Records
---
Amino acid sequence: MEGLLQSKGHLIVEGLIEGSIHGESIFTEKDSRITAKIYAKVLSIAGFFKGEIEAGTLTILKTANVEGHIRCHRLVVDEGGILNGSVKFISPDDSPQCPPASNL
């Protein structure tokens, strides 16, 4: 899939994605391959990700491989999770503001 994917609730992402993903709570599956900009309040990555992330809380699970630029308030990396890139910690006041899903 290519383009913009937006969600108000909990979003589970599988497969190949290129583009932008905006959501409140996003979970990427173990076999996912994502090249994107992601804006989320809560983001958990279990697969491959390359791009930019802006999140309140980012969790990189043990099966994840993450490459890119990250801005987040809280970062958790499980043992075995791979993170290559830059990380900038932001205050809770600077947490990502996703555009409303109704603006598609």
Note: The chain has a mean pLDDT of 90.
---
Amino acid sequence: MLELFGSSGCSYTQEMREWLEFSRRDFVEFDVDADAAALDRMREATGQRTVPVLIEDGKVIQIGWQGRGCVVGSRVVGGGSQTHHA
């Protein structure tokens, strides 16, 4: 399974999402600004707070988009935000 961890306020997350959709990749997207559990999973996998992050079958395959990314905050409020793209 391909997972995209990103932030709704990060333009690089948007660009990666558009590239994945253009490439016709199925993926699940997590908004780490709204989902504390997703932020924790991303930080555990990467050791950092930079988005976007692509994880495939539990393995980090990309951090950032074309060498750039956004740093997300450590405090998240909310129950979660996940979107499935097919």
Note: The longest helix spans residues 11-22.
